[in-house]
Automatic annotation (TrEMBL), chains A, B:
UniProt cross-references to InterPro entries, sorted A to Z: 4pyrrol_Mease (IPR000878), 4pyrrol_Methylase_sf (IPR035996), 4pyrrole_Mease_sub1 (IPR014777), 4pyrrole_Mease_sub2 (IPR014776), Cbl_synth_CobJ/CibH_dom (IPR006363), Precorrin_MeTrfase (IPR051810)
Protein name: Precorrin-3B C(17)-methyltransferase
GO molecular function: precorrin-3B C17-methyltransferase activity
GO terms for biological process, alphabetical: cobalamin biosynthetic process; methylation
This protein's encoding gene: cobJ
Listed EC numbers: 2.1.1.131
Pathway terms, separated by semicolons: Cofactor biosynthesis; adenosylcobalamin biosynthesis
Amino acid sequence: MSKIYVTGLGPGAKDQMTIRAKNVLVHCPVIIGYTVYIDLIREQFPDKQYLSTPMRKEADRCRMAFEEAEKGQDVAMVCSGDAGVYGMAGLICEIGKEYPDVEVEIVPGITAASGGAAILGAPLMHDFAVISLSDLLTPWETIEKRLRAAAEADFVICLYNPSSRKRSDYLQKACGMILESRDPKTVCGITRNIGRDGESCQILTLDQLKDTKVDMFSTVFIGNSKTMELNGRMVTPRGYKDV
Amino acid sequence: MSKIYVTGLGPGAKDQMTIRAKNVLVHCPVIIGYTVYIDLIREQFPDKQYLSTPMRKEADRCRMAFEEAEKGQDVAMVCSGDAGVYGMAGLICEIGKEYPDVEVEIVPGITAASGGAAILGAPLMHDFAVISLSDLLTPWETIEKRLRAAAEADFVICLYNPSSRKRSDYLQKACGMILESRDPKTVCGITRNIGRDGESCQILTLDQLKDTKVDMFSTVFIGNSKTMELNGRMVTPRGYKDV
């Protein structure tokens, strides 16, 4: 029985990939993914059959994976970050119902929350909420409700998809909502191009974040009420030091 | 200048470790960590100087790392999962102020939310909140507030430290609070010993979870209102399929 490995490549798709993910890529003759991710790994694994579909054609890409697997070949379906966090794992499980003979394994990767936190310092030492600002598949009212709830309950907040051409003011709107219950001096961080050329990060206040433009390659972190800037790092204390 | 690499080993500390984490362990002559994690890697990297302190002595362990680094040796400070999620990264950054000559790099790992999600299926396809039920360093009122907020705003919820000997009824209490705003039939999951011998998972309803005992090696997932059980997997749809 052939198998699909839904594989998170981690940020940048090089040494932040897990050993398991690398072994999967070595093993599978067929690798399927969005063009940008394929390009990240093609050089490392040249002797593979690479298949792709454009952005937004996720369901087609999944069916392509099952069809290749039905031909008897093991398939790696790759995503950046973690396939299990806003990734392809869910759709593969849903479409998998139509292909009962194909086995599916999810191979987790480092998601942008973990990868970005490591660059900034240690913002995720305490309870946190991960929220996507993309309203492509989610009503904006739901996103608003979650932003407000997370802000009021003093979660550290990690924002995925904080901006795109069509949504250039969404981060500003999100910061406005969070500011209804949070100190404007709350320590925040922006990471960009995690694990890739041009990787960068910036620490700033919530007030400043509100008026900062970010791009679609960014992940945004909003600290909780205890988060501080320490030697240029964003750190949320857990409390061990006082124990 | 010597360097401390605060390194997440991922679940199980074998092939779910990143290539970067493995390279760090190969490179560093000194490896420091809680005994349980050290035991997981000692066999793979036998020719190292291993140092440890008991549980709860986290600050001592960090100072030990800085003192070894000041002697001129690169040090790997290891944690299971991701050092940046309820891990040692924060304390190392805090204590690092006292040792300005030692460089620190955080090497992220697969945290239990990602590792557990992969075993269950795809529960984290949409916005989620990570909450620790340990009140060792956090007032229980804060935990309650976050549980209620996350439940009301329909986040998928991932619970770390859902139980211990002293807190055997905390998961029950947490489920009770979540049930104030959520359907008793909400799809939930429990993962145990992620990436290790005896790895297992179970899918059940929120109502059933309330009366289920879990141990300290478990991570608990509570779905959002759209999460479903699909062929024995816990899946939160993102919506792609309808696009």
